[in-house]
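ugh ok fine here u go
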Amino acid sequence: MELQISSRVCQNVLITMVLLICFSAIFFTYYKPTVNWLKWPTFSRPDSCRDICINALKMSNQTEMVNITSITNLLTQAEPVTQTDPDTILLIWMWPFGQKFDLGSCGSLYSIHGCRLTDNRSQFNNSHGVLFHHRDIHGDLSNMPKLPRPLFQKWIWMNMESPSHSAQRSALNNLFNLTASYRLDSDILVPYGRISEETGGKTTYTVPHKNKLVCWIVSNWNSNHKRSQYYRQFKQHISIETYGRGFSKPISNEDYLDVVSSCKFYLSFENSIHKDYITEKLYNPLKLGTVPVALGPPRKNYEELIPGSAFIHVDDFSSPKELAEHLKVLDQNESLYRQYFTWREHFVASSTHFGLDHACRACDHIRRYKNYRAVNDLNGWYWG
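structure:
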């Protein structure tokens, strides 16, 4: 008797779980959010899922079990890709800021195969996807395609600038199928950099030689920026080596590498504060063996992308003076300072190749994910 009761309880628990999945499936099948704000896959066969769920609800006395594997398969968004599938063609409609890149590098750099990039607009009708860079789209859309869009074709909106530095245009609503940006809730996520596991296992990291305490390189100086205001207070309590056009001290790319790696701390101050807007100002110091001092979105946002022990956040301190005192302590205590590099035993940092990363990953995305997608309210999502 006890075994029967226990078995019935287990069955009821499993039935409850299946019903919860079914209700969620039905809800997300008929409620289509305008942006990809939930990390829940789109159903490629909604009718099949609906039928399974309805059948589960009709089970007499709940004595039958739905095949959970079949539901799991329905939740799988990516379609299998084989070597015999034809190449996926992605048309680069406009070079981002006019910067061209190697159209044949997806395989060698990212192990993305079966994708063919082109900038030949005569291939428009044959292209599975078209990539558009937001900052290069004219306000009147005069440089957008004039031909009707083929039904199978996906238009991808690409942008790496923050909302503060991107013009909002109402005409862009209901125009694109996919988004590719640094935003974590983009359809195609392309952050400014990545932290990846070391392929060879745990390693010993050697911190580069340091002869400077704090450095900052700025090209775009604006006294109204939060970073400028923080800097003015911060420099009263600690010595800061400054470079860049903002300080009338431009440096070359080669000098940039040498300067950043020679500093114990680098001011990774963003020019505007927005969700997920974490740029090369953070990833470059991480790559070059320098501890970033971050000013941008909250620490929690940073920790979605990089180890919390790899950087210092200005919000960790009550004032610029308190932060300055902390950096001075680390300067005098090598053991404490080196703790900021323990993550390098297991991970490496890399930067994004602007434009190429977007194109290769966008092509790979539309090759693998065949579901229909529409960005109805781009402005509300990005600028809202």
